[in-house]
Amino acid sequence: MKNYSIILLYVVLSSCASTRKHNEQRATDVAPEKLKEDIDYAYTKLQEMHPQLYWYISKPELDHKIDSLKQTINEPLTPLQFYFKLQPVIADIREGHLALRIPRKKFTKKEAKALEHKKAMFGRFEYYIEENRLYIIENKDSIQNIKPGTEIVAINNVPVSEYIKKYRRLISSDGYNTTFQSYFLKDVFFNFYTAEKGFTDDATIETLYNNEKHTYTLTREAKSKNDLEKDKELEKRTPEKKVNDYVAFSNSYNRNFKFLDKDSTTAYVKVKSFSKDYSDEFYKDTFAKIKEAKSSYLIIDIRNNYGGSLYEINKLYSYLASEPFILIKPSQVTSRVTPLKTNYFRTSSPLEYALKSFTYPTYFFAQAFSTYKKDGKIFYKMKADKPTSPNKNAFHGKVFVLINGGSFSASSIITAKLKNDKRAILVGEETGGANDGTVAGFYSYQKLPNSRIKLPIGLLLVQPNISFSNDKRGVLPDVTVTQTMQDIIDKKDPQLEWVQNEIAREKENTVK
């Protein structure tokens, strides 16, 4: 016990020292020549490991942007200031998964605990972004009776439009689709804001509603005893929460299933994230119920689904296929050693590091023999690029898929496959992820040597097994139906309504 206490004390002290060192470094200016070294380092690593760097931008164009950026750096900058200069160039590569990690302040355990005992300040609202304007569309706790549809015009006397213009340049989708940015920016706007401004205990917002201006002071309120008890209750993992992949932070499920009519003709499955967790159980239970009900129609809703597991979308497709299928094409990497650059010990605690040290040889050999060469290119072995048989409870009726600009990554992979195979009718908006694939899979987490900013680089070129469109766009819907901000406020869903009306029309024609 004595030795254990000494080790524990050492871990705590090391953690505190690491946090202090990180925050000091984050606030320290870095010389211009050192920042230029970081730019060169980032570009070199991208050229070395990214398997499709010049997919949406030519090498001469990217070279020019890199050189132009270096010419603008002629004075010392903090890592945060440097981030706001380099990230827009990274975003111009137009690979949605490729982005620097914003250098945030780290919190000690005591500070983190104190924040856990306070309510969010900006996180108690839901937002909508249209052009350079930010709106509140849901006031979860009825804070100061702020109405949905209220525009936030300024925060602490700074126009919100300035922040949106600044932050929009930090975000890229895959290729040249037109829908992703506003969906993603509404979710990450205050991540950027708090990285810049810190976690303050209050903020003044100027608003506009029905042409009337108001000023409110938001505060970071302390949680009551009931609030803390409720948090603990929400975090408990019941069997239902596991299968439907419950997320305590949002008090919602990643997966939902229900029938939309009394006779169970139409089944509805919503997936907010392809997390993989308990996905086998969810799809097994869901499609067994659909088969038992003899449903004729299935609506799959993957709007605002930023992607996730290839395993899960391959599993889902097996419940929609009538014959063996291959989900993705072989995944290309830049070299045979690329899979060994995945930072096996990243984010490990001292205990985890010790345990991983024992398993590292197994990991090393598995990765070392995970590639193969074909037609002069190197590919990574993946289960999803092998034939998969349809599940015995596969659905053979008509499938509709709801998509929008928030459908990204794995959501776009499965959507493109369904469209190519003519297995579903896509309704909604162009997806945020590309029709022809993306670069992700797993990552090498590089750290720029002087600013210490992290740069995760996707190592796999992941493409659906389809005939490519080559238009450098998202997956285009078969039927375009948009949803306005007022629709969301009024809880209207014109995209789902279109599908339900189409099903009703088909039923009526069948009866005739």
Description:
This protein has helices at residues 2-26, 32-49, 59-72, 79-91, 109-116, 160-168, 180-197, 225-235, 239-243, 279-293, 310-318, 350-368, 410-420, 485-489, 494-511; strands at 125-130, 133-139, 150-155, 158-159, 202-209, 212-219, 246-247, 252-253, 255-259, 266-271, 297-301, 331-333, 371-374, 377-380, 398-403, 425-428, 438-447, 454-462, 479-480. A hairpin with a 6-residue loop joins strand 17 and strand 18. Strands 1, 2, 3, 4, 5 and 6 form a six-stranded antiparallel beta sheet that branches. With 512 residues, it is an alpha+beta fold. The chain contains 15 helices and 19 strands. Mean pLDDT is 91; it is low at 1-13. The protein starts with a helix and ends with a helix. The chain has four domains: 2-91, no CATH class; 118-219, Roll (Pdz3 Domain); 254-325 and 388-438 and 467-511, 2-enoyl-CoA Hydratase, Chain A, domain 1 (Alpha-Beta Complex), CATH 3.90.226; 338-380, no CATH class. Helix 6 (160-168) crosses helix 7 and helix 11 (310-318) runs parallel beside helix 13 (410-420). The radius of gyration is 25 Å and the shape is globular. Helices cover 39% and strands 19% of the residues. GO terms for molecular function: endopeptidase activity; serine-type peptidase activity. Pfam families: Peptidase_S41. Residues 211-482 form the Tail specific protease domain. This is Peptidase S41. InterPro entries: ClpP/crotonase-like_dom_sf (IPR029045), Tail-specific_protease (IPR005151).
Quick take:
This protein is an alpha+beta fold and 512 residues long.
